[in-house]
Structures are given as C-alpha cells and as structure tokens.
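FOLDING PROBLEM:
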Amino acid sequence: MRTIILEEPGGTDRLQWVERPEPALQAGEVLIRAKALSVNPVDVKTRAGSGIFGRLKGELPLTLGWDVSGVVEKVAPGASKFDLGDAVFGMVRFPGHGRAYAEYVAAPEDHLANVPAGITHEQTAATTLAALTAWQVLTTEVDVKPGTRVLIHAAAGGVGHFAVQLAKHLGAYVVGTASAANKAFVLSLGADEHVDYKAGPLEDRVKDMDVVLDCVGGNTRTASFPLLRKGGVLVSIPGGVPAEMAAQAAALGITAKGFLVASNGTHMAQLAELLASGALKPHIGHTFTFADMAAAHHQVETGHTVGKVVVTV
C-alpha cells in the first residue's frame, strides 16, 4: 500500500511516499480502506518538529495523520461493532501514533462511528479531530446550556466553524471572531454576532462572556481575559495555558485552561447523529489528492483556511 512516512522533522520535503505492507491488526481493531483523510494544524506542526512530535519521536519513522473515513476491509478478533463493507470514520489514536496517511489504516473500533447515509467520505473525514475538539470542549470542559454566552475565536476555521454550530445546537448565544471577509460565512453557521478581530481591541466590543474558546493561541489568550465575566472560562486549544497565565486569570476571578482532544468513538457517534440530522455541516475549503499531501500542508500553514482541508485517497 502507499503510505507517507516522516523520518525526521522539517518541511514538506520530508514527507516520503513509500510502499508498505498493510498494517497488521491487533485485537479489537478493524482495517479501513481509506477514502478520505483530513489535515489539521497539529499535522503540520508535528511534521515540523513541534505539535506532538515530542510524544512520538521515539517511534520514528512516523506516519502522520489521525482523521480517516473509509470502508472496513478486515475485522480482528475482539472487534464486533462493525462488519466488512461498513463505511466508518473517526480520529484514530490521538494523541498517539495515528498512521492515517496511508491507503489502509488499522484503527481501534472504539475510535470509530458509522458514516451516516447520504454523507460523503469527504464530509466525514472533515468531521473528525476539529469537530471532536469542539464537541469535547463544549460538552465536557465547560457547562454550555441554553443562554450561555460563548465567544469563539477564529470562528471560520476548522475547529471554530464546528464550534459555532455545536454551541448553537446546545442553545448558546454565540459570538464569532473572524475577518470582515468571513462575516457572512460566520453568520451563516448560526452565530448571533460576528466581530472583526482586526477592527480594534475586542474588549471595546465584547464583554460578559461565559465561555471563550480560543482557537488561535498566543496573545489571544490574555487578550480574552477582559471579555469574560467573573467566573467565566477560557479554553485554549493551540499551545494550552502556562501555569503563570492560569494564575493571572485566577487573580481576575476567571479560569483559563488548555485542552487536548482524545479519540472517543462514543463522541464520534454523537457527531454522526448531528451530521445525519443536518444540525452539523462541515465546510470543506480545499480538497487535495493523496499525491498532493504537501500542497495540503502548505494550505493549512497559511492559517487562513475557511473550514477544513480534506485529502482524497
């Protein structure tokens, strides 16, 4: 099978297309013939030597990728959730070694869900790590309920565009930051307000938020502190929250914390239900072929992708 390996971190020239045997299955796993994959910022960062490279460097050469949608080709002993020929999707083994940049992917069955009828493999590949991140934050890290005021930074991006829809599904009042060019898109997702992050200090235009979901990192974290009410919560995805920053937040009467998504088939099944009902719709901003994986990485590196980057296999 064709797979992409990374023998050492660096630029996209470090991605090598090689022929490898199909992966052997462990108990409780299925073999997926991949139809589509998704590329996330963590893929790009890990390829370059940051991201979660430190967790995985002992397993070099790496096969990057965690998001896959495809068809079950084999079922190992101990796996009983899926049958041969089933269409499945999921985020596999994150934050471990996912090995999804391949024509065949071995996956624990409890990291997967069935692809809903009428939904394409491209759509489900898009609705994996980014959607799962948003769902887990909004349902396990913060108490989002009807009327909760939620601010989502980078609301037009991968995690952000899912978070807007999911927060609205949970009944929240949603404010999304994005460029002026993406205002119509953010509002089309269901956001109650769009705020242009380039148009001056956010604290002059946003206040009394219960929750801030930060999909940007850097200075956006501390710049979000004045936007929260007392008792409010900031959850930052990229880079987390250092201890001194968390202490600074606590002194202001708010909570600031990081979050790292984890593979979870039950949560994937919940996302599948939302896809099936139409409550959740992935936006695929760019599609590439497997041979164009380097171009997919370059697109993610721009930091300005609307929605998701998907790769067909």
The mean pLDDT is 97. The chain has ten helices and 15 strands.
